[in-house]
Each structure stands twice: as structure tokens, then as C-alpha cells.
Amino acid sequence: MSNCSQMSLIHHDEAAGTLSSLRSEQELAGLAWAIAQAGAIAKLTDPEFAVVETALYMPHHDLDGIIASIRDGHDPLGNALVRLRSPSQRRPMGAVYTPPEIVDAMVGWIAAKEQPVRVVDPGAGSGRFIVEAGKRLPDASLVAVELDPLAALLCRANLTATGFDSRASVIVDDYREVSLDECAGATAFVGNPPYVRHHQIDSEWKGWLTAAASANGLPVSALAGLHIHFFLATLLLAKPGDIGAFITSAEWMDVNYGCLLREMLTDGLGGESIHVVAPEATPFENTAVTAAVTCFRVGSTASSLRLRRVEQVEELADLTAGHKVGKQQLKQEKRWSQLLTPVQPMPEGYIELGELCRVHRGSVTGANAIWITRADDPALPGRTLFPSITRARELFDTADGVLLNLGDLRAVIDLPEDLSELGDEDRNLVERFLRLARTNGAHSSYVARHRNPWWSVGLRSPAPILATYMARRPPAFVRNPLGARCVNVAHGIYPRQPLTGAVLDALTASLRTSVSITQGRTYAGGLTKFEPSEMERIPVPSLALLEEIAA
CA 252, CA 274: separation in Å to the nearest integer? Predict the structure, then answer.
């Protein structure tokens, strides 16, 4: 290790030790202000001033050591904020801090592609991207946009410590309300837009998204997360020739609300490449998520963009890699994640599961607390109680992939549409149950209001093979020879033609050993989901090959 590297580690360790004693955000604010007030960007906004007014500066802290650590490329102030604020405190603002190796790769890509006159980070946090841009692009002005006043203060401190304050500005505002001065050259947009789910976004901003997208002829869904808002705001701020790289959750590649971003990337935003990071690589500390680095050049007329999946964060060092996919194909495809790897020819003798079987999600009761009961509930006729898979773990815990015991399962209450077919004793039990169900609102749930009659769940027939579809591991495929039903915690796999038990066993065994988590879509939080249509695309042996295996 070189002397410089050793000194950097010493500075980092000393700074970390100094900041580990911080017990409050007020102390952190005091340290940040002590560093930032000497810089050229020390004029605070009112929200920042309110933070500084309550700041506590502890004289014994080693400012020189902290500044040295920042200059060596570390972010001790940002790390301290992450430590002081729990994930639940940071989640409402979507504050997830990006690891340095990802920051390096994204800013490095920009520096290699362009020498912009300005760099804008739309959700700067403590300034990791904008500080790295200051190092890589010595002639560019730096614009950090951050809504959280304490994070903005840390950003000022980091820019001052690195000497970039003279060409930097920190805007404490919502990125969607920011305007930029005209500049003669290209602007680079780089950063980690905040991830906030749609139900935490004010209706006013949902209206902004709808109006802005519609005005530009773009499809839009009000269910879009905040990161989609930031992409649209970037398109509205940018001009042709501007360049950008954002890292976000990869959900938008497949879900309906992502249609807006998918359309922008194949048109005005000018997508160049998308690099999806496997959740096992943990691109963000303590956060299991499939991340996507999206690179774009505004107004590009290129006919294709590059796609790839990487298993390790280190692979992001080359953001020019990936196989080309035509934008015309992307426009027609609703689920982009299946295009991440070049289309491989189907193995000889294999077909898609959908050619052999239909896949249906389990039945929806509308109120599980009412319609699911113990299998031997004496308050209801036995003919109305159907042993069912009601928890995914009942499939995960099935030994050898065959469900051979219904005794541990709960039952779904599925009443006949015509109650007159019940005998008097059974009818009395059912009428008593329905009075209780009404008292608990079972008749007024969304599902109940859209079925006729409301009391008939309408369970599907038993599926010969059952499968989980959402977990942090590959699906469990289980043979169902005893005919258990299932609610919507699982999918049912139904052959399109009668298959022998031996063939069904062979098909189940193939699914259990060949399906990986990469064939589904992984959401923030690390859950991987397989929609029925996605499960139907899984390669399986042909019927002829299954019959040969089963023989």
C-alpha cells in the first residue's frame, strides 16, 4: 500500500472515530457549519439557517482530521447522518446514500463521454456525486439540489473542504421547482433520485406529473414513484446534447407506472444504456434492491440502447458495455428486464411452460379474516370448507416438493351461489355465518361488491402444480395430488391437456431445479415476483421429453 493510501485510511479512521461520538443531528450540523462557513457558498437558505441556529458545536472535535478525510475521498459527514437517522426516518424522503464505487463509475462515464460546462445533481444528499464531479471535471460549474436542509449543509461543508465551493452552488428546494440558467455548453445530470412510493406523494405533485407528461405527449400513471418525477423534471430542464446518469430502483423497467420513463428513454431523453445490478450485490448498504444505472443523452436519435445485468458492483466500472436492443423493439415491449441478456435459443427439446400449461393466480377472497377458517370449523357445513394453501410458507416447507398432507392446512369457505341447494341444517349454519360476515363488512369489500352473489368466493379447481410467486428466493413448485385449493399467495399451474402423474412429477422436478430468481422482477426491499405471464415463459422440457424422463 502506498504512503498516500495509508494516510487516507488514517484520516478516514480518525474522522470516523471523531464522528462516532456524535449523539444528535444538532452536533452534526455544528460540525458541518464550522467547515462550510469558511467557504464561498456559506450564504445559507432560511431552512439551513434554522438548522444552524439550533446547532451544537463541540470544540473538541478534530475538524482538521475530518477535512483531511473528505479531501481523501471519504464522506464522514454523510456517514454520520446515515448513522444518526434510522432507515424509517430516511425513507419518507427517499434518502439512500450511494456507495463510492457506484459514484465513481457514473461520474467517470460522464467525464469520458463529455466535458460538460455544468453538472447538476438533483438529489445531492451530502454531495457525493457533485464532489466527485468536481474532481473529474475541473472546469465545470457544480449545482447541487437538495430539499433536506441538514443534508444540504453537509453538502456545503464537503464542497468547501474539497475546495470546489468557488464554482459550486447549493439549491435547497424541490428539484421539480428548480430552473436553470442557460449555458453555452452541455449540462450533465447525475445522481440518485429519491425513491418514494406514490402513496407518499402529495396529490398536487401527482397532478404536476400528469399535466407535464401530457403536455409533452407522454403516457403517464399517477402511481409513479418520485424517481420517475425526477426523470421527467430532468427532461424539462435539459436541452439536446445534455447528458446524464441516474441510479434508481429497477422496478420501472417492468411495472405499468414505468411507461413514462420507458417512453422517454426511447424518445426525447435519449437512452444510451441501462445496467441492472443484481440485489445479491447489495448496491446499497442494508437494502436489498435491484438497482438500475440509466445513462442518457438528451435528443439522441440512436436507434438502439445497450442493456445488461451485472452480478457485482465492480462490473459497473464500464458503463459502455451491454448488448444492443433496438428502440423499436423496446417501444413494443412492456417488460424490459427480460431483454437484459441477449435472447438465447431455446435448448433443444424445450418449450415455454405456457405452451404446456396455463398459469393462474390463486383466488381472491376479499377478506381473508372472514373467509379463511380452520379446516374442521364446526360452525359451517363440511361441504363448504376447502383445504387451501393460504400462506406461501406452506409450499416452501413442503418436503420433496409434493403436498401429501392436507391436515395442517386451513380452509377457505366457499358457499354455493344458490343457498337453496343446502339442507335445512346446513342452511341454518350458513345463514348464521352470513349474518356475522355482514356485521364484519364482508359484503361491502371491493371484491365482494364485484361478484354475484357476494358470498360465493368461487375457488378455482385444484391445480396439479402449485407455485409461490413472491419471495426473496426462487419460487417453490409443489405437486398437488390431493387437490388443495389456493388463494392468491400462490399460482396454480394447469396443464392444457391431461398429463399423467409421472409426467407432472417430471415437470415439477424440472421447475424446482431450473428456475432462478433472475427470471422474475425484483422490487425495492428485495422481493422477487413472478407474474403468471412471466412464469409461462419459463423454459421446460417438451411433453415428449417429459414423457421420456417419466418412463
Answer: 12
Is the pLDDT score of 12 beyond 60? Answer: no
- Residue of 65 and 486 predicted with greater confidence: 486
Tell me which DSSP letter residue 319 carries.
T
pLDDT of residue 523: 64
Q: Which of 523, 529, 517, 451 is nearest to 490 (CA)?
A: 529
Helix (H, G, I), strand (E, B) or coil at 441: coil
Buried b (16+ CB within 10 A) or exposed e, 361-394: bbbbbbbeebbbbebebeebbeebbbbbbbbbeb
Cβ-Cβ contacts under 8 Å for 84 (sequence gap 6 or more)? 22, 24, 25, 28
Of 344, 342, 338, residue with least CA distance to 253: 338
Average pLDDT over residues 80-86: 87
Q: What does the alpha-carbon distance between residue 282 and residue 311 come to, in Å, rounded to a whole number?
A: 10
Query: What number is the average pLDDT over the span 519-530?
Result: 71
Q: Does a cis peptide bond (omega within 30 degrees of 0) precede residue 453?
A: yes
Assign 103 to helix, strand or coil: helix
Contacts (Cβ under 8 Å, ≥6 apart) of 537: 338, 352, 353, 354, 519
Q: Which residue stretches of 20-53 are H helix?
A: 25-36, 46-53
Mean pLDDT of 22-31: 89
DSSP secondary-structure letter at 469? Answer: -
What is the rounded distance in angstroms from the CA atom of residue 426 to the CA atom of residue 432?
Answer: 10
Region 387-408: mean pLDDT is: 93
Number of helical H runs and strand E runs in the chain: 21, 22
pLDDT tens digits, residue range 439-469?
999 999 999 999 999 999 999 999 999 999 9
